[in-house]
Structure to design on (267 residues):
């Protein structure tokens, strides 16, 4: 057999092994999510654990969410006014800012920030608990680590994400108002009235909430799984944290495309 055929077989073998490993890990992650949902009943009986994690993942993420939302809205106000002015439609600035944030930028950008701040922290925390054998100690004491550690963090992320996305959008609209009305001089009545008339609750706001809810499930699932499945070493924890941010970002953007295609295909 020639060297070329040997190298080709080796490449195909390595490719097949990687694909098989990825499929196996995806199946394990799906079983892990199912186990988390099954043991969630035990978690809800001790809801104070989830409340504590909501503070850790949600409340402590407020600063970056609010500040980022404000500046995103201000940039939308500047860019939107410059574009609309060319077509004589500067009074529609409120519509542009509101729809951009409620439909798209609010859920997506807040989810990316949530994955970077809270998702990575959840992975690191669970990974360190595994590295220091705290999860094994729980199993020795007949305490289910999925119900005690994983499920509260998962549901905290799912609950926090839609609230953070709503606050991001609200702060972004306020930033657009500051730039458009207070700084540039767009008519305040037109800014708010056209926004109120054009933003539909079901088509725009509700779809944005659904997006943020799905993103919360994805980010929380990836974060707890990567932490629980990481190698119990410092290098393993750091690698799992990196994978959480990267995988969550890709999952958010791909899910956003699918959800947008399903929600707005008839608009």
């Amino acid at each position: 057999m020639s060297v070329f055929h040997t190298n080709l077989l080796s490449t195909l073998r390595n490719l097949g092994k990687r694909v098989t490993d990825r499929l196996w890990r995806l199946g394990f992650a799906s079983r892990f999510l199912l186990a988390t949902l099954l043991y969630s009943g035990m978690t809800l009986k001790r809801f104070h654990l989830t409340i504590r994690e909501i503070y850790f993942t949600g409340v402590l993420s407020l600063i970056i969410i609010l500040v980022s939302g404000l500046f995103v809205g201000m940039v939308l106000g500047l860019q939107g006014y410059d574009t609309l002015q060319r077509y004589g439609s500067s009074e529609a600035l409120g519509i542009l800012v509101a729809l951009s944030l409620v439909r798209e930028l609010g859920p997506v950008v807040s989810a990316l920030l949530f994955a970077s701040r809270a998702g990575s922290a959840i992975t690191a925390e669970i990974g360190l608990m595994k590295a220091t054998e705290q999860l094994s100690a729980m199993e020795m004491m007949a305490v289910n680590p999925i119900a005690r550690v994983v499920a509260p963090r998962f549901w905290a992320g799912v609950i926090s994400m839609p609230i953070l996305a709503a606050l991001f959008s609200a702060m972004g609209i306020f930033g657009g108002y500051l730039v458009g009305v207070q700084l540039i001089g767009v008519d305040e009545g037109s800014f708010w009235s056209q926004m109120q008339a054009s933003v539909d609750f079901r088509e725009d706001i509700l779809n944005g909430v659904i997006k943020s809810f799905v993103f919360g499930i994805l980010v929380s699932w990836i974060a707890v799984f990567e932490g629980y499945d990481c190698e119990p070493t410092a290098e393993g924890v750091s690698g799992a944290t990196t994978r959480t941010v990267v995988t969550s970002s890709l999952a958010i953007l791909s899910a956003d495309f699918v959800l947008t295609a399903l929600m707005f295909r008839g608009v």
In short: The chain has a mean pLDDT of 87. The two ends are 59 Å apart (CA to CA).
